[in-house]
Structure formats: C-alpha cells, structure tokens
Amino acid sequence: MWLQRELTLNPQRRGFHLITDEVIAQLPELRSLNVGLLHVFIQHTSASLTINENADPTVRGDMERHFNVLAPEGAPYFQHTYEGEDDMPAHIKSTLIGVSQSIPITNGRVNLGLWQGLYLCEHRDHASARTIIATLQGE
Amino acid sequence: MWLQRELTLNPQRRGFHLITDEVIAQLPELRSLNVGLLHVFIQHTSASLTINENADPTVRGDMERHFNVLAPEGAPYFQHTYEGEDDMPAHIKSTLIGVSQSIPITNGRVNLGLWQGLYLCEHRDHASARTIIATLQGE
Amino acid sequence: MWLQRELTLNPQRRGFHLITDEVIAQLPELRSLNVGLLHVFIQHTSASLTINENADPTVRGDMERHFNVLAPEGAPYFQHTYEGEDDMPAHIKSTLIGVSQSIPITNGRVNLGLWQGLYLCEHRDHASARTIIATLQGE
C-alpha cells in the first residue's frame, strides 16, 4: 500500500517544535499497516526535520541556542546576504539537520522510542506555513 | 517483501563503533532480495547512526574528538542539565548525525561502498544496550 | 515497481554542486510512477548528498566556506592524517551531511520544493568520479 499526502504545518516562531501528533493526526491510514515506513519530507531550504527528545522543552531551547552557535548570523565570509541575516544560517542548519525523516511503522503505529518525537526545526525569524510531503508505504 | 525486526545492540563505551556485521548477521533474509532497501532506526535520543570509513580506527577516534568540539559539555546557555553534563551534547549530536540510515540492497547484499561501514555513535558516558528497528523491503 | 541503477557522477572540484538534472536524466522510469520514493546513496566516505537552495550559487559557496569552519583542516587532535589534510575533515563533513537522501515521487516527477535541488558535496581536493546507487520504488 502506498499513500502520499501534502500536509500544511502552521507557521511557527524560529526554534524547534514538536509536531508528532500534528503529523500523525493527518495520516489515519497508518493504523491499517502492520509493517511499513513513514517518510516525511519538508519542501523548504530554511527549515528541517529531526527526531529528538519529546518531553522537556528546555531540550528544544538548547537546540535552538546551540545551532545558532554552529551556524551564526553575520559570518564575514557569507556572500548570500540579501535575504536577511537569518537566511544563510537557515540554509546551513537545514543541511546539518536534514529535510526528511523515515520512521518505522509497526502494528499500526509509528515505532518511535519512548522519548522520541518528530520536530519541525524553523530557522527563519518570520516564517510562513511549511509544507511536508508524507509518503506512507507498507502492508 | 517486508520484514521488520527489533535488534538489541550491546552496550558500548562513548564513541563511534562499527556495527555493520552485527546488524547484518541478524538479518539473514536480506540474502533473498535482488533489489531493496534496509532501513535502520535507533530508538534513542542520545545515540545515532552514520555510515563512514570502515578500516582505520583512528577515523572513529577523530570523529569522537571532533563531535566533542562541535557539541561541547558545559555550554553556558544549556538549560537541560539535570541528566548530566554529557546529556545535552548527546541530544545535539543525535540531531547532527541522525537516528536512521537507509542502505540499498543489491543481489542479496547491502550495497555499501568498499570503504563504508555502519556506525553506532554512542554519545552517553554510561550507556545501556541500544535498540534498533530494522525494516527490510524489496523483491 | 523496483528499479535500481548505479550512476557515475563526473569528478567535481571541492565544494557543493547541483546534480538534480544529472541524476533525473539517468532515471527516465520515474515518469511512470504516480507515487513513490527515490533513494540516492553515495558509496563514499569523503563526499555527501544534501538538498538545498537551487538558484543562487553564492549559497553553495557559503556552504563550502562554512563547512570548512565546522570541520577545519589540521585540528591538533586528528590522528588520521596520512591521507592528506583534507581527508579527516571530509569524513566529518560526510557524517554531518549524510550519504543518502530520499525524495518523494508524485505524478511522475520528483516532488522537491520550488527552491530545492539535490547537491553533490565534494569534500576532497582532488576527487575522482563518484558512484551513486539510485533506488526507485513506487506504483
């Protein structure tokens, strides 16, 4: 079985945001799969998707603060500067973190670890809604 | 054909460890696939999976030393500190490296390059066994 | 439907290079898929694949400059030095960026965002041709 759906995520402030429930709620068909994979792909170059700790919001805050150190604004060698100070760091973070995740499906559920959740990583200061292509396959 | 299996990896010391053989040995069914994909997913937020050089152990040592620079302990802006100095850097490394890998299967074998191997990246000082969900599909 | 093909990419200078068209041209079968996934996997440990901005070449230049800061040559703790100053940073960049990407297929086309393209990230100073295993599946 293959199913593909375009999902729209509400605009979020710059930072790391848990979206596990928001994504799964839009894919009720995954309950019918005994075994499979869910692929989520964000169609942008200044946001990204990761899987990390789903409980303590300070983890998401520390992520934002640390990725701002790894990809700081205003590096003297940046030439791509006309879209704002936050733009080139956003592209770098997107490549460091990645634009897709594949998650196993087991017995009708995403088989994440107990402490894992899916994050939208929003790297722009003033972001619009973001589009994800979700592709579900399995049997 | 779909096959999914939960694999338990022995506890490892903090660092980067080759696990290609340990994982493949637990998936004898992949020998029957002419073409396919193996997806390996680690169900943790303080460990990760990557593919890199499979021969010289100094590569794995240098990886550990360099990721300790990229995500150092004791950053003054860390708020998530109650699980130990190594915990927040472990979460960051997990997102930098990623929790899953997909590997092509060709003629009954994982089609890695000559110098490639699968690594478990253990980011905690005192880790327990780690769980991987392996999902095999193909024909 | 499954299809797998080994693609050879022309040697490139060190840096980030758009290869979307070069890859798709070698996979005409994807036009026949209504829904699916394209998995591209580079069989090397000193090059990588990412998806990022497809328009302004300064983005690719800034990427190269910034990853040279994130994984600099000549770190005093590097022990794996006998293959050249650029070798260990290349391994680190490969793990930071990743060796594979999965891209949704929709109505016979790769369903990238408007501004997204596939990059070959070449991390060696004097690289040879690079091999990618492309795996296409869908219906």
Helix-strand layout with pairing:
Three copies of one chain form a homotrimer.
Chain A: E1 2-9, E2 15-18, H1 20-24, E3 35-42, E4 47-53, H2 57-70, H3 87-97, E5 100-106, E6 109-110, E7 116-122, E8 130-138
Antiparallel strand pairs in A: 1-8, 2-7, 3-5, 3-8, 4-7, 5-6
Family (chains A, B, C): Belongs to the UPF0047 family.
Pfam families (chains A, B, C): YjbQ (PF01894)
Organism (chains A, B, C): Shewanella livingstonensis
Brief write-up:
The structure is a homotrimer of 139-residue chains. Chain A is an alpha+beta fold and 139 residues long.
Strand percent estimate of chain A:
35-45%
- Under CATH, the homologous superfamily of chain A reads YjbQ-like
Task: Count the DSSP helices of chain A.
Answer: 3
How many strands, which pairing sense, and closed or not: the largest β-sheet of chain A?
5 strands, antiparallel
Along the chain, the helix and strand elements of chain A come as EEHEEHHEEEE
CATH architecture of chain A: Sandwich
* Oligomer designation: homotrimer
